[in-house]
Write a structure and sequence with these properties.
The chain is mainly α. It is built from 10 helices and 2 strands. It has one domain.
């Protein structure tokens, strides 16, 4: 069992395994930038919301060139991936990302089955004429805003308070950091999705908060970016979206999906190969040490 744990740890740190992940994670960014440069949206201005809450009409934002805000978001995403790779935890973070989506979603569906809760159906997808580029922008802005508000700022407060807290109080602070913002995070999703998203958003928010404590703020930020922005890869073929507004995505849809499929396949195939290789390698080391 100990040998298997070491092998799995080696898997998450393996260069090939992380390489496939990097390709998958960068596809949404490549798709977004390709779309923006082709449509010319990169040279336009767009409102970047700073204070807002779903269902509340009052909000505050600043209007700035898209290349500035999108550039900053792309930079934070890229730096985050590089940082996690350099720390050799990118594989672990990606695995936890899958868990943070699959397990909360499963438990949420179970609760919704017994409560009868149903997610509110959005009709926004039917009214995207002239708004596609702005919608794509929101798929990057929303993760950044949510992570800064629900994980980033509370984390900074916790870190600043650390020197004035005992070890016991700081550990309690960690639990407060994981639980309270996650509950508020769930409440944030209710106006647009209804109560059906309460369970999965509380749980995923808690996992994201734990990841921030364990692997740095970059962990939930990068994961949240890709969870929302992966939609861009398939936007060239989505119903309700005018093809004339996503010409680049439509023309390159096949290439993007081929690269994604090959990377996923490579990732899946590499898992048993790398794991078995690590088990054999660790076994040999143990034998050598025994001699």
């Amino acid at each position: 069992m100990n040998n298997l744990k070491k092998a799995l740890k080696g898997l998450s740190e393996n260069f090939i395994f992380q390489g496939f992940l990097v390709i998958i994670f960068f596809l949404p960014l490549i798709a977004t930038l390709g779309q923006y440069f082709n449509s010319g949206f990169i040279n336009k201005t767009n409102k970047f919301l700073i204070l807002f809450w779903p269902g509340v009409k009052v909000n505050y934002g600043i209007t700035v060139p898209v290349w500035v805000t999108m550039g900053l978001m792309a930079l934070s995403y890229t730096i985050g991936i590089i940082y996690l790779c350099r720390k050799k935890v990118f594989g672990k973070v990606a695995i936890w990302g899958i868990i943070s989506m699959a397990l909360p979603h499963l438990l949420g569906n179970i609760v919704n089955h017994f409560t009868g809760w149903r997610e509110l159906q959005s009709t926004d997808i039917m009214h995207l004429t002239g708004l596609v580029d702005r919608m794509i922008f929101s798929l990057w802005q929303n993760p950044l805003w949510e992570e800064v508000v629900f994980r980033g700022i509370p984390l900074v407060i916790l870190i600043l308070m650390k020197k004035n807290l005992s070890e016991r109080a700081f550990n309690l602070g960690k639990w407060i950091y994981i639980i309270i913002p996650s509950i508020i995070f769930a409440a944030y999703h209710v106006p647009n999705h209804g109560p059906s998203r309460i369970v999965d958003t509380v749980l995923s928010g808690g996992i994201f908060a734990w990841l921030a404590l364990e692997y740095s703020f970059f962990a939930p930020l990068v994961l949240h970016y890709i969870v929302d922005a992966m939609m861009v890869v398939n936007m060239g073929q989505m119903k309700g979206i005018p093809t004339s507004e996503v010409i680049w995505l439509s023309q390159n849809h096949s290439t993007l999906n081929t690269v994604f499929s090959i990377s996923i396949l490579g990732l899946i195939v590499s898992i048993p190969i790398i794991t078995i290789a690590n088990i054999v390698k660790n076994s040999r080391k143990q034998k050598d040490c025994a001699i």
